[in-house]
Task: inverse folding
């Protein structure tokens, strides 16, 4: 997931009152044995190869028409179709490792929709990406800036003769898989949100180099570090209006937070199913671990929390998808991070030493820390929630 820029309460207020509620299908999910392998005995959802990396999964989804169908009317500019997107994320989670599903999440929720902002090259890449023939990496997070995107040092010099892009981007999902990078760069000094612009950088351009991230986690995600050393490009590689980079990102990161929450519900459901199966199979005394009341209560607590997150997502999904409501997206993001950490921690604990097997519950739990960092650290989004306290409190009124 991507890091987040500061939220803009004034823009949120202009979006109007809360919207309607999304109705999402109930999703049947199974467990999996290893990070990049499908669940044992699970059927592959149509168009989804089991155990694939992010690039292979993206290509298969595009060829099957499932990438385009995740948007209303097949148009990313019209926003995501929440029920279809929910099904897509759950299907990907059922057969892919967390890294591979992450590669899908960032592209479909943020990178691809941002291409609709305009630009000659952006239009060409958009069609290729939706067909699954091109992988797009969202390069927002700078070296050292983390969630403080206004502190990024990557620059783009804009002249009549062309563009020059320089800087270093760290922990970029799809970096080693990408055909193009959608780079957030500063075109003038200062932290004002109008000082940033999007540039579409081909992976093959002179001055572009990529280094895989030094981590065994998130296999299949293509996560790496990007260096841009005086990359020269035509002005046709600008995406959207100059100075609208941060504002557009603030809007689209809201949808990424929604997408991550849809995925979180599916992941919690799958992990709970897997934990319950394990508890019912492991002998304890004359029965099984599932017969212990203390175990059942801990499991039930997790099940309640997963349902709470699911209900919250249904209530807020459409207003995030349609109006890019950043306050609602922040509530979802914070709730997902807290729920995933609690549920996966308990599921891993209940499976005992078996959870430490390769691809087991402890491995999944370690990667699930992503929900507390990617897409904006929990502390950042909680600050945004506090900033929107008045309207959020008003929603609780009878």
Result:
């Amino acid at each position: 997931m991507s890091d987040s820029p500061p939220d803009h309460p004034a823009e949120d207020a202009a979006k109007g009152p809360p919207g309607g509620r999304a109705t999402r299908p109930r999703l049947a999910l199974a467990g999996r044995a290893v990070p990049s392998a499908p669940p044992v005995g699970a059927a592959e959802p149509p168009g989804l190869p089991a155990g694939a990396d992010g690039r292979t999964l993206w290509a298969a989804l595009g060829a099957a028409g499932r990438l385009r169908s995740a948007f209303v009317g097949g148009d990313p500019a019209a926003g995501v179709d929440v029920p279809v997107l929910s099904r897509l994320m759950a299907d990907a989670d059922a057969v892919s490792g967390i890294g591979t599903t992450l590669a899908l999440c960032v592209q479909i929720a943020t990178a691809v929709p941002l291409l609709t902002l305009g630009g000659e090259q952006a239009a060409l890449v958009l069609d290729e990406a939706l067909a699954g023939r091109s992988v797009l990496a969202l390069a927002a997070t700078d070296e050292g800036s983390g969630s403080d995107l206004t502190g990024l040092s990557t620059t783009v010099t804009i002249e009549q003769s062309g563009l020059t892009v320089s800087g270093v981007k760290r922990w970029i999902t799809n970096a080693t898989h990408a055909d193009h990078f959608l780079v957030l760069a500063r075109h003038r000094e200062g932290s004002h949100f109008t000082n940033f612009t999007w540039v579409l950088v081909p992976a093959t351009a002179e001055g572009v180099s990529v280094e895989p991230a030094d981590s065994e986690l998130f296999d299949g995600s293509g996560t790496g570090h990007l260096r841009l050393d005086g990359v020269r490009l035509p002005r046709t590689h600008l995406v959207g209006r100059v100075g609208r980079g941060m504002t557009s990102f603030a809007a689209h990161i809201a949808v990424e937070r929604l997408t991550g929450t849809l995925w979180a519900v599916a992941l919690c459901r799958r992990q709970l199913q897997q934990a319950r199966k394990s508890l019912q199979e492991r002998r304890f005394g004359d029965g099984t671990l599932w017969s212990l009341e203390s175990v059942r209560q801990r499991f039930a607590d997790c099940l309640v929390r997963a349902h709470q997150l699911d209900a919250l997502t249904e209530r807020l999904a459409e207003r995030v998808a349609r109006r890019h409501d950043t306050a609602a997206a922040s509530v979802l993001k914070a709730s997902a991070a807290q729920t995933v950490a609690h549920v996966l921690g308990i599921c891993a604990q209940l499976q005992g030493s078996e959870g430490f097997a390769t691809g087991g519950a402890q491995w999944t739990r370690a990667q699930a820390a992503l929900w507390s960092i990617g897409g904006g650290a929990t502390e950042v989004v909680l600050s945004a929630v506090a900033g929107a306290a008045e309207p959020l409190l008003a929603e609780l009124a009878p």
User: Anything to note?
Assistant: The CA atoms of residues 327 and 389 lie 9 Å apart. The longest helix spans residues 245-281. The two ends are 36 Å apart (CA to CA).
